[in-house]
Specification:
Structural class: mainly alpha
Distance between the termini: 63 Å
Helix content: 55-70%
Number of helices: 27
Strand order of the largest sheet: 2-3-1-4-5
Shape: globular
Oligomer: single chain
Length: about 550
């Protein structure tokens, strides 16, 4: 440190901020910080510089010191929320923003941050209201308008997304969220070249956060796919997911990720005696259902398409990937002793969990009484022993698709982060998770008594009637011609999986053996998946 430099005062820092000379304010704050001045405003600006340098974790350390000095400083609390959002910790970020708003209810930046956190938690309606309030409080603030454009794009309201994005870009050319929303609109409207050019300019500008950069690269990859350049697209997907994987894993802070969980289950159930997992017949029917089917397999195996087809049958009702079993799974998932306890569950305790399950089903506006109820939970293949203990009369519809297409498709699409889906942002680990889940399915077929029907996605695409007739025979219903009208069903229903748009297109063959187009860019997954490709009867090359 140069000891001859004049000491910087807090007043000088505040004067630079008031003059909107942020470069000078940051420079003065850094100088004051180096001179040992500990003041919330100084620390906040030092943290802001770290945030701009994409170092949110380091910024948080500085901001925590500022909060200790001034617990009720709304600007510090807002900055903490911003950095927590950038490290993909929306629940903690929401708390910080709400504390800032308790102090100053008209703080537009905190309303904007709160909206981003709510969106990250999946509450899109509340997120929209928060961004509208931020824009109302400060009409010249581009971020909430860009965030509203992004929300419209997620809802595929392309007209609104375009209008909002153009409004945000008029306030701030190159505003990241607005630029990404506009690129998404261009891609959806068929102008992949314009979308690719827009995000390439945005990326080259070098001002994107890690999460925005990942989103930009993902749109670029989708655009390259649409332009018929799959190898370049895969390179962009790999780059997009590299940053995303690191952020998501750190934010989850999970004691056990999906691959570790599957490997633990493999060890446990390989050694488990089969008789411990063959329960007595279920004596209660809390659902009043005529039949109970779990649609499992793996993500991106055609389960959304199949669910819409089954839901078109007048005697079936289906539920799409809702947390009907989450509490039950969490009760017994933690360690081997908990699995031992599950193996020994008595009928009275099982009945309590069954009653809760059917209560949850009905909370999602599905009435199973008198119908065959289909619960679509693709990755619950992992938890088939849990299902067997609660619902020994249930039937298992197991969706299968070429393993290479499954893994590549998982890698290309975004899922809400959890300990399993976070693994899908790493190509090699995605293949390893797939392999582990298929090994579990093999073990379960030896240990459990649940009846299983294997459904091949490719067979459905080739001959819908024949495949659905076989499924109907398995679940115990006559085939119905309404099953051909699944596009109408899909258009009526609120589908939240990444497959929604594809399902609404109807049956098409472009996605079959799509993995071939990526060439050597996906070589890392081929030896991992080769045993399953062979076992399932798919061509080697």
């Amino acid at each position: 440190m140069n000891n001859t430099q004049p000491r910087v005062s807090v007043d000088q820092v505040h004067a630079a901020v008031s003059a909107r000379n942020m470069d000078l304010a940051i420079r003065l704050a850094e100088q004051a910080y180096a001179q040992g001045l500990e003041h919330p405003s100084v620390l906040n600006l030092v943290a802001y510089k770290l945030e701009l340098e994409d170092k949110p974790e380091e910024a948080l350390q500085v901001l925590e010191r500022a909060r200790r000095l001034s617990p009720d400083d709304q600007f510090v609390l807002n900055s903490i929320g911003v950095c927590l959002s950038k490290t993909n910790r929306p629940a903690e970020a929401l708390q910080a923003f709400e504390q800032a708003l308790f102090i100053d209810p008209n703080f537009a930046q905190a309303h904007n941050g709160r909206g981003l956190a709510l969106a990250g938690l999946g509450d899109k309606s509340a997120a929209k209201l928060a961004q509208q309030r931020a824009a109302e409080l400060d009409p010249g603030f581009p971020e909430p308008v860009g965030a509203l454009a992004a929300l419209a794009a997620e809802e595929k309201d392309w007209e609104s997304a375009r209008k909002l994005a153009e409004r945000a870009l008029a306030l701030e050319p190159g505003q990241p969220a607005a630029s990404l929303a506009l690129a998404a609109a261009e891609l959806a409207e068929g102008d992949a070249a314009a979308a690719e050019a827009r995000v390439s300019r945005l990326i080259s500008g070098g001002r994107l956060t890690r999460l925005h950069l990942s989103g930009a690269l993902n749109i670029k990859a989708d655009a390259l796919e649409a332009l018929g350049r799959p190898r370049e697209a895969m390179a962009a997907y790999i780059e997009a997911n590299r940053g995303l994987h690191e952020v998501q894993v750190k934010a989850l802070n999970a004691p056990e990720l999906g691959l570790d969980l599957c490997r633990r289950f493999i060890r446990y159930f390989e050694a488990a005696p089969a008789e411990a997992w063959r329960p007595a017949p279920e004596t209660s029917r809390f659902g009043g259902e005529e039949g109970h089917v779990f649609l499992v397999g793996f993500a991106r195996s055609g389960t959304t398409l199949l669910e819409q087809i089954l839901a078109s049958h007048p005697q079936m009702v289906a539920l799409e990937e809702k947390p009907t079993l989450d509490d039950f799974i969490m009760e017994f998932i933690g360690h081997d002793a908990a699995l031992d306890r599950l193996a020994a569950i008595d009928e009275a305790e099982a009945d309590r969990w069954r009653e809760l399950y059917w209560k949850r089903v009905r909370e999602f506006d599905v009435e199973p009484r008198g119908k065959v109820f289909v619960d679509k939970l693709p990755l619950h293949t992992i938890y088939l022993p849990f299902i067997a203990k609660l619902f020994p009369r249930a039937k298992i519809l197991f969706a299968r698709r070429d393993p290479r297409d499954v893994v590549v498709s998982c890698f290309r699409h975004r899922f809400r982060p959890n300990p399993i889906t976070v693994e899908l942002t790493d190509l090699k680990r995605a293949a390893e998770v797939y392999s582990a889940v298929m090994r579990l399915a093999e073990i379960y077929s030896e240990k459990l008594t649940l009846p299983v029907h294997i459904h091949r996605h490719e067979d459905l695409v080739e001959n819908l009637d024949a495949e659905t007739q076989a499924i109907c025979a398995f679940v115990g219903l006559p085939w119905d011609a309404n099953m051909r009208n699944f596009v109408e069903t899909a258009n009526r229903r609120d589908i939240r999986t990444p497959s929604a748009d594809q399902v609404r297109r109807g049956l098409y063959k472009e996605s079959l053996a799509r993995w071939r187009g990526y060439g050597d860019t996906i070589d890392v997954i081929k030896p991992i998946l080769e045993p399953w490709v062979k076992a399932f009867g798919y061509p080697a090359e």
